[in-house]
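Sample intake — Apolipoprotein N-acyltransferase
Collected from: Urbifossiella limnaea
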Amino acid sequence: MKPPRVFLPAVASGLLLWVAFFPLNLGPVAFVALAPWLTLVRAPVSRRRRYFAAYLGSVAFFLPAVQWMRVAHPAMYASWLGLALIMCPMYWVVGFALLRRLDRVPGVPLAASFPVVWVALEYVRAHAPTGFDFLPAAVHQKVGVGWYFLGYSQHDFLPLIQLADLGGVYAVSAVVAAVNGVAAEWLMSGRLPLGRGASPVGPEALTGLAPRPNEPTGLRKLIASTLGTAVVFAAAVGYGLVRLNHPAFENGPVVAAVQGSVPQFQKNTDGRSLGQVYAALHLRAALANPTPDLILWPETCFPAEWLAATGPPPADFAAQIAACRAYFAREQWRVPVLLGLGCTEYDAGDLWKYNSALLLTAAGQEVGRYDKIHLVPFGEYVPFRGTFPWLQAFTPYEGDYSCRPGQRWTRFPVTGADGRRFTFGCLICYEDSDPSLARRYALPAGDEPAVNFLVNLSNDGWFDGTEEHELHLAVCRFRAVECRRSVVRAVNMGISAVIDPDGRVVTALPKQVEGVVSAAVPIDGRESLYARLGDWLPGACWAAILVGVVVGRRRPPGASAPR
């Protein structure tokens, strides 16, 4: 086969998948985007050419998909290229190898093998190398790239995304992957008509590929695979329609999220202006009718720092803590407020920095604090900095700015105007892209019940004007469905929003505008299987892969080894 016949299907798939995400947001394209790439699994070409084509397909997707990262800082060009050319493509190539192995199992179509492999590797990509919950505490650190899952392309397909309360976003990814598998089988079968009255076209005319040797793809097998996938798709949508058919949500507390439009360069250099912008928005929210029960500020948008200590601090730091408390008590909050800010804490002789959310009463007294658990590599800490100090060059900061990860899933209280008490959990920045973090709040913890809703504080001013704003909102919608909890977002530069437990955006502000979004938070009493069982679906997929690899080692009589 000529090289273009191998490389073009792969590159076409990468570009088609990019079309399914923002900025174009053509979600339905995702159902067939990877079909050309999948035909390479059975391509009669050399191993080197096949795997290089698989790599090119991943680069064709990730290079344009994550280019918004470079806007944050010149140093982020290296992060963009590292993700797009090395880290993320690695999973596609590994997945391709696993697919080749599973494709040797008799009677297993791509509609079955592809979802299993894809979901398994989405899970690894979201947690590798140290973010897996089964790791011991000494090495466990939340990390990973939990964006651009296949399921996220369907954020506007409300009936389908209800499946996330069973198996997380991974369940939605599996359905999309299954349809891609069927589409690839049809491409390779040579039975797709092109144009009105066209006769069947052979696979080599479409993709340059020949049917799989030793196991011809018959029409009966194709129809069975197609019908099976159609049943799965119909069942998923039917389940979603049933879950969407429920009584109106109960109204919870009125929560207002303030959104400034302060780019990061201005935020870094002009803290006074930042404070003035958000103080004015806070006053506007506090004086609104109805008066909110809680006001949210975005991540790190309060210009002052909170000081704390876990034990008796030195006298000079104790004086600074007292001055800090007095400063916050002097502010005119008017209503309880959750502030996104930095925190410095004295602990066992050391000062530690945190990215925090601080709940204050209307009088400025501390109620509780949450410290971000899932830190962003190179954005909030430098991994392996002691061993490889040159990695500092890939960060947007100078000097040691590393934060310490938090350890507690703080459950904050809030009281409604009618006296009812609620609790909520907080996710800071991209923590809302980690399903395993959000689900902890949807479970009881000791004597504390599950929270009633979630909030997300984020500073997206780093990515001013890019598609990151829309994608971040789309990702967050899945946490609402997985936990069956509303999510209220307060985001610098947007998109601040209220998302109901069905994943529907109730109200939102456009990006790059100043304003206040306020609503009574929808409260849902339903439970979620995903919240209880967690990432059971990726685990099942890895078990299936292990079985398939063992079975696939036994080639049918007369079959040749894969090239």
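Post-analysis note: Residues 76-102 form the longest helix (27 residues).
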